[in-house]
Model the fold of this input.
Amino acid sequence: MSALPWHRDALTRLLADRARLPHALLIHGAPGIGKVEFARAMAAGVLCESARAGLACGQCPSCHWFSQGNHPDFREIVPEAAAEDDEEAEGEAVRPEKAKSVVIKVDQVRAVADFVSLTTHRAGFRVLLLHPADALHPNAANALLKTLEEPPPHTLILLVTSYPARLLPTIRSRCRLLALGTPETRDALAWLREQSVDEAETALAAAGGAPLLARELAQPEEAELRRRVVAELSKPSGADTLSFAAAIDRPRVERFVYWLQTWVSDLLLVRMSGAPRHHVGSASVLAARAKSADMEALFELDRELAEARRLAAHPLNPRLVAEHLLMAYNRATLGAKP
Ligand SMILES: [Zn+2]
Done:
């Protein structure tokens, strides 16, 4: 598990003195900057038997197990839905919407209680990684609280979230907070090119500077959705609300909301200072749409989109959500109509 280039210095500083590591660390920052990768690299570094400047050597037995995903002193907890998504990334078969859990359940936290209280296999640290921490069900959070209150020695608990404010204050207050920032553009672009991402600048801008999100957005299917959403939002006559929303299903709604949010935020930017941040290739269209827009309504929509993004992981009805947001977009950009 090698660290992302822009995380190496922070990891080295953090792991310089293992004896002074906190027992719990809450890692937070914008989506798509590699927080989980940071946490995994930190876990690998802590468990490594011959770490160099805090970083995992990649050669020792511990590093070998870690890279195989079966280190006995490491556990990673995610919501069931996320675990299934990983398994089913290939070959998207049509399957009934069964109740996949998007929360981390209390049973999952209880199941690692033994892991945390036993002696370690390798007579070193044991590391528990939990993400996204904002997905902790309140009961699960309470179960975790007990471990956080009386941490066993040589235990490191890593919580990762893009939304620290959504965690119970009792959880937050028992962790040391670590804010990860967006990497320097130069570092991010170098990494994206190394990953063979086409049009790295455009992808990075679209992702608001977050490299892992940029790589995801550059995938052909993602790029196609973006193209369609942007084409729809660019129409001088407004978006075709009903027919466009009909194509927004559950897997796409979260991204749809992301594109609409970044577009609206760019409209506001263009009106105020002239240059878009995310949709840099659409500057002239944005300028045209922004000219007729009702600023008050745009600000209102921007707030609504922030809320919609929070709920997008499990919206009641993706099509209705999309329809409602597109109607609000049309009202905000086509001028005041009753
Ligand atoms: Zn090692």
